[in-house]
Design brief:
Shape: elongated
Mean pLDDT: 91
Number of helices: 2
């Protein structure tokens, strides 16, 4: 039954039926539906991880434990890459690498270690994560492009390398990927000259560029040499930085044509030395709660198993620290979460909209009766359909404990994002 329901719901997503389309339009018109995408990058001196809302340019920051400042004198060092499967940000100062949860005060996902195959002669100048093959791409100061398979979340194994054919004296200072079209972008500069250019290749041939274009201004102001680049595949916007100014540039990936500047953000904290785009963040609403005969599970939480990106066949909706030995019901629908209903009988009510009819999936939590060690992970494969970008959804778990008590988790508002 649950497999059929999931198949039916993902088919509804893929087909974008009129009811879903109408609900999505209404939800997207709702202000502050979710925390929007952010540009994010490691910075030059402290270092920090600085992020900025792409609409308002508002700044936030955290400190990555164990990451030292870049080595003085080497130039154009550092890289940033967002890993949408673990929701962590890879950071390199040029010689070291680690991964951090920027949404959670730079909590460590992978401790800082020496970057494999790297020395002061070929320090890292850019990072990019390619989700379809779980591959980390690295540009270095010798203009070599290396790529590593990522296993276990943190283990990097060198796959291959090539040399980007650029004029002598020029430097590759950053890289980014488009998981949808399979393109890889590089920022290339001539030291001492303003701005730089974006060079584009295909992932399958990362050192055979097929187009390039200059980037020299941001908001009408001249840019210093470029140091980093990221890509928002849903919006089809390149984000290119000189450390202080970051230019949002709408891009036609089919014809490889830059179109129009959409934003120019100023970083007043500490200059970026690497850059990427972090997708929108879900918003939690409502408390979790239990009624008598259920254990009191203060740490119960509904969360996303990974980023809900287009084509993510492994996406899950998770429940953790729930009453053990109980029955949990996932309730999911298109549109924003609303005010609680059915309270009682559920202690916190259900915030998922009921029109169109929601998906419900029933599972056992496992664990021990009377303890808060139950959990669930409901797989919801997201179709590889870019038209789903930005589709808003709301999800929540409710359930029944072995003694007949009821529980409800927090609700989550979230949106399908680009890879």
């Amino acid at each position: 039954m649950s497999r059929f329901q999931l198949f039916s719901f993902t088919n509804r997503l893929a087909a974008a039926t009129s009811s879903i389309a109408l609900a999505a339009c209404a939800a997207l018109a709702t202000p502050a539906f979710a925390q929007g995408p952010r540009i994010v990058g490691i910075t030059a001196t402290t270092p920090l991880v600085v992020s900025q809302d792409i609409g308002t340019c508002a700044l936030a920051q955290c400190t990555p434990a164990g990451m030292p400042p870049p080595t003085p004198g080497l130039g154009f060092l550092g890289g940033t890459a967002y890993d949408n499967r673990t929701r962590g940000v890879w950071l390199s100062d040029g010689l070291l690498i680690g991964k951090f949860d920027v949404r959670n005060a730079c909590a460590v996902q992978c401790p800082v270690v020496p970057m494999p195959n790297t020395s002061p002669n070929n320090p890292v100048t850019g990072l990019a994560y390619y989700a379809p093959t779980s591959t980390l791409y690295v540009s270095d100061r010798s203009n070599v492009i290396r790529w590593y398979s990522v296993t276990g979340g943190c283990t990097l194994t060198l796959v291959s390398r090539c040399i980007l054919p650029i004029p002598a004296g020029d430097v590759v200072t950053g890289c980014a990927t488009d998981d949808w079209t399979g393109q890889i972008f590089y920022t290339v500069v001539t030291p001492g000259s303003p701005g730089g250019r974006v060079v584009v290749a295909q992932i399958g041939a990362p050192c055979l560029p097929f187009c390039q274009f200059p980037v020299t201004t941001c908001g009408g102001n001249p840019m210093s040499p470029l140091v980093g680049i990221g890509y928002d595949s849903c919006a089809q916007v390149l984000w290119i930085t000189d450390g202080r100014r970051t230019k949002g540039l709408r891009f036609d990936p089919i014809n490889c044509i830059p179109l129009v500047e959409v934003q120019c953000c100023l970083n007043t904290v500490d200059p970026y030395i690497g850059l990427d785009v972090m997708p929108s963040t879900e918003i939690s609403s409502g408390p979790n709660c239990t009624t008598p005969t259920c254990p009191v599970c203060l740490s119960m939480q509904h969360k996303l198993g990974s980023d809900p990106f287009v084509g993510n066949a492994a996406f899950t909706l998770d429940l953790v620290a729930a009453p053990g030995g109980s029955t949990a019901i996932l309730v999911l629908n298109v549109g924003p979460c609303g005010p609680p209903v059915f309270a009682p009988p559920f202690c916190a009510g259900i915030r998922v909209p009921f029109s169109p009819p929601p998906l419900t999936v029933t599972v056992g939590t496992g664990g021990t009766i009377g303890l808060c060690n139950g959990m669930a992970a409901i797989g919801l494969p997201i179709p590889a359909n870019q038209a789903l970008c930005g589709l808003p959804l709301c999800s929540q778990f409710v359930g029944v404990c072995s003694g007949g008590g009821l529980f409800a988790s927090n609700a989550l508002q979230w949106a399908i994002v680009g890879a």
